[in-house]
Structures are given as C-alpha cells and as structure tokens.
Amino acid sequence: MNSSNLTEKVNVMSKEIPDSVHYIFGVVYMLLNVVATTGNVVVLYVFFRSKKLHSAIYFMISALCLGDLLMSSVGLTILSIASFATYWVLGDWGCIAYGTLMTFLGLMQITLLTVIAVTRYIFVVHNNNIGPCSAKVITLLCTLYALGFSVAPLLGWSKFVLEPIGTSCGPNWVGIEWSDVSFNMTLFFLCFLAPLSFILFSYIMIFWKIKKKRIQKKNETYEIHVSTTILFMIVAFLGSWTPYAFMALYIVITKNNQIHPLLAALPLVFAKCAPIWNPYIYFMRDTKFNHECRKMLPILSRLGLWRVNPGSSQADHVMHLNDTLSRKTSTYV
C-alpha cells in the first residue's frame, strides 16, 4: 500500500469520527498541555536556579522533564489545533517532522526512565553512585539511542504517516512492507519491551533488598514510601505507553487496519498523558526539591502544593544519591 493510498484511506476512516469528538479531544489535549507544561516548567525552573540540585540524578531527571516539556508544549499544542480543525493541518512535511520529533521524545523518555531505574538499582542494591560526568555521558547516549531510531524512517526504514484518527502522525503501524514490519517490531522489542524489562528487574531487586534489610521498625515508613513511589512510577509508565504499544503490535501482527479510528485514538490519548506524571511523581515526594521549591516559589506553599511528605524523611535519607563517595546529596525517590 503506497503512501498516497494510505493517506486517502486514513482521511476516509477519520471522517467516521464526529466533529464533536474531535473537539472533545482538542479540549483534553489542551488540559493535558496546561498541566504537563506547568509542572515541567516549575521543575526545570527550580532545578536550574538551585545549586543544591545540581547533582547526577537531578541532571538526568531534568533531561527527562525537558523532553516532557517539549512533548507537551509542542506536541499537544499541534494535536489541539489539528483536533479543533478535525484534520491534519501541517501537510506531509509537517507530518514527517511531527512524527520524528514525537518518536524521538517518546523514546528519550522511556530510555531515561530506564536509566534512572537502573541507577536506583545500582545505588540501593550495590551501594554504588554515579557522578555528574557519568550522568551527562549516559544522558547523551540515551539521546543518541532515541535519535537513531527516530530518524531511521527519514533514511528509508519505514516512514511516518497519518494515524487513523487523522489528526496525528506516527510510525506506519499498518504498513505491510518488510521495512515497515521490521521497524515496528524493532521499536516494540528494543524501545518498549527491553526497557520495561530493565525497569521491572530493577524495581523487583530494590523491593527484595528493602525487604531483606528491614530489621527496624523505622524502616517500615521507609519501605512504604519507596514502595508507593515505585508503584506510582510503574503504573504511570504502563498506563501511558502499554495501550499504544500493544495496539501497534496487534496491528503489525494481525495486519488488521480496519480498527475504528475512535478506538485507535484512545491509546494515543493515554500516551499523550506521559509528560504529566514525572514532575509530580518524582518531585512531590522529594523533600529536598520541596524545600527549594518553597524557597523560590513560596506561592506554591500558600496554595498547598509541593508539601513535604512527613513519612518520607527516612526514605530520603536512604535514597539520597551523591556525586562523590563521601557525601549523599540528592533524593532519589
């Protein structure tokens, strides 16, 4: 199926969605944009203003939030405009550019989440730390890894096309050519399943280590705090990306491109929620960030936002990372 036929088919299928539904999606994208952009802007502002937060782990988290900010401010804005127009408004080149950018940011997010999970595992289980230089190198490698897969369609390995909803662009999941199928399967296994496996392994080992070392009552508060934080991260990750990933895998395996556009749009909406979670999960439970946030943005304290979790002190003490071997400086969960 060539690209012109595919585009025509998508346009026909997208007309099955009432304009009112497109408008609802547009409003949803706008709300997600406001929440995600606000959270990530606050996080990045506090991070760059506070010298106390210039450590290895915060550097990686700031890179994660920067990607989330771009995904929300650029990606969700374009989606909102297209949804209110009820069709893709940026043309073929805009579709390619959007697909490339969103794929890059999505892969960057997943890769950085994996690295953060692995570094947490290394610290908790093996009591080893990474320094600022290592964090920068790791972030650069994550960027190159995500960039390599996101630009592959520009070099002839598959292509970016309109998605069934007709207001967004992404990988050609419905393509039946070998280049499309191989690219899609590679994305699923190397850019979703493999990172997910590393994340689950890291968190399982962390739970095992915590359970093994729980010999004092005060550790119960620590275990609850860490367990809850990790649960939030896992649920957010799976909730955002799994529906989209498995819908894509289903289409690739079954060659079923007759899925109703509205049904295909729901996993897309879940995936677009991804930029929301990280600033609120990683930082609302971080006492060090809370302190810096209240100091630089006191209005948030008056509004009741970014409060310190009373049960997190022991967790913060144990999970602090440092940039040297002699001093712990950054809260990890």
TrEMBL record:
GO molecular function (one): G protein-coupled receptor activity
Pfam families: 7tm_1
GO cellular component, one term: plasma membrane
Location of the G-protein coupled receptors family 1 profile domain: 39-282
Keyword Protein transport tagged: no
Primary location: membrane
Location relative to the cell: Cell membrane
Transmembrane in keyword set: yes
Membrane topology: Multi-pass membrane protein
Keywords, alphabetical: Cell membrane, G-protein coupled receptor, Glycoprotein, Membrane, Receptor, Transducer, Transmembrane, Transmembrane helix
InterPro entries referenced in this protein's UniProt entry, alphabetically: GPCR_opsins, GPCR_Rhodpsn, GPCR_Rhodpsn_7TM, Prostanoid_rcpt
PANTHER family per UniProt: OPSIN (PTHR24240)
Name listed for the protein in its UniProt record: G-protein coupled receptors family 1 profile domain-containing protein
Organism: Magallana gigas
